[in-house]
Amino acid sequence: MAPTSEAILKVRDLVKHFPLTQGIVFKRQVGEIKAVDGVSFDLHRGETLGVVGESGCGKSTLAKVLMALEKPTSGSVMINGKDMAKARGGDLKRMRRNVQMVMQDPYTSLNPRMTVGDIIGEPYEIHTEVAPKGDRRRKVQELLEVVGLNPDHINRYPHQFSGGQRQRIGIARGLALQPEIIICDEPVSALDVSIQAQVINLLERLQNEFNLAYIFIAHDLSVVRHISDRVGVMYLGKFVELGKDTAIYDQPAHPYTQALLSAVPVPDPEGREQRERIILQGDPPSPANPPSGCRFRTRCWKAQEICATEEPLLQIRPGTSHESACHFAEAQDVVHAG
Amino acid sequence: MSDIRPVGPTRAETEQDAAEQVMTVGVPETPLTVEPERKPGKQARPASLWNDAWYDLRRRPLFVLSAVLIAILLVMAVFPGLFSRVNPMDATTCVLSNARQAPSSVHWFGTDNLGCDVYARTIYGARNSIVVGVSTTIVTALFGGLLGLIAGFKSGATDTVLSRTTEIFFAIPQILGALLILSVFGTGNVWTIMLALSVLAWPMTFRIMRAAVITAKNQDYVIAARALGAGSGRIMFRHILPNAVAPVIVIATINLGGFIAAEAALSFLGVGIQSPDISWGLMIDSARDRFLEAFAPLLFPALFLSITVLAFIMLGDAVRDALDPKLR
Lengths: 338, 328
Known about the structure:
heterodimer; A: alpha/beta; Rossmann fold; eight-stranded mixed beta sheet; four-stranded antiparallel beta sheet; 12 strands; 30% helix; B: mainly alpha; MetI-like fold; 12 helices; 65% helix; elongated
């Protein structure tokens, strides 16, 4: 799964602000929710980028903007050199073939009134040029087989499947157009732990088979670590740390990442006793009115005056091996600390 | 991050073991077969909504009763000759000297002020009631439903304009508004009544459809379709409409009874169906002056009217209960 060649997805300074309005007839803008506020990263062919962060930090908005379901306020989403954020009409439709998504809840992401064959075949009906009409049923059956479902179940309805099987149907729909990038927005958080493993294994197998690139959004650090090549940690609409999975998990440099990782349960009574847990004070600030300078400073134990005045940029800092956005970045192994 | 769950290993040395464990759980080689099972108490199975509803309905006495009544009424409306040998449209069947006879073996429901057979007139009166009820229901469901679909889907300015328009119609009292519209037309017949009732009744369907569409359009499968590049037409008619149509069907069935009652009321008031055409409302109107002398000409059309309205409202109730998973 080593990243090869150049980036197929280049995201630069992506910003998505939702306006807050008051009034019914004459709406006036009273502020904005800064859901995603300056995110940049590259994604290479066959690579998995994990995105973690707590609820409300902008992970799902990031996914929606990357899927062109929301128009970004500014910034660019370059796919193979073309900006998806600026594409319209037929161009956008063609570009969508390259980016597909797997959604979080397998119970709501499949239309209950359509058969599995119709659901997985719908991409071919929308993009008629991908498969000739007579060929579609066979292709759908192939896809069912690829994701480990019985091809004979093509005429069944979603409610006749279990949660894990329904998620496989969602994955098959995402694969139908043979995309290069699949955005997985918490694809396993609605599933049982044992089913999570099956779906993760399926995703890994498909990645090897079709050389897919994943953006894997989750709040479960263990799952992200298992599947990701690189990991980005989000806080209030920004990446605070971005690097190889081993670097992030073994030498986290940003205090927020360290706090997150120190909360991961360790299945070892001895290590657990000796480990120091970092407990953050307070709640995340409102994304409508984020703190000046470093956004994490209000909950950070390292915060100094500079944090309020100067925003730390996401860059490689002395003594660390990967990019982090903290003036006082310092690699510290919190998972294995003892 | 209170919702972190321990799935994978967090220590390097346990990673190998855990990975093997994961592999053994792994992707099943032979796909599991799932037999469709029926659990009426469960909510998360809207796919077989119609099947479940049909299964449920057949076991409801209320539904069976109303369905049988409605079936009889429909046959009566289409082939009234099957029920009555006398054709009341033929004026020679009315003999003035027979006026206001009590029910007998010849005239089952007696005769009215003009000596016409009340039974035959009641049977023949079903057609107008049913035609007004069914046509008004179809027109309001199509018109209100389509506008509701557009308003709910487009939202914004389109929705505001359409919603405010319906509020204007809501402010008009039904019977008063219909009286006004019909008096503009001058002549009352089945189609002008249908038009008057439709003009006043479509906002109800509109509102219900709009609400259902707004719920449906934020569902994940609609977002998934948009992510695939589906156009508005496909999303509206393939994804939203099939999932939003159930409440409209329910309200249409219940309204049908109401439209039949409204037709009778308008005919009674003299702006609806005009003599010599036959309508239950008209029969009640002509019988009311002398009803102390002969109650039959008033009683039987009123009874048929009540039973018909009741049958449709019961049907609507049964359908609503069957389609609403929360009431199961």
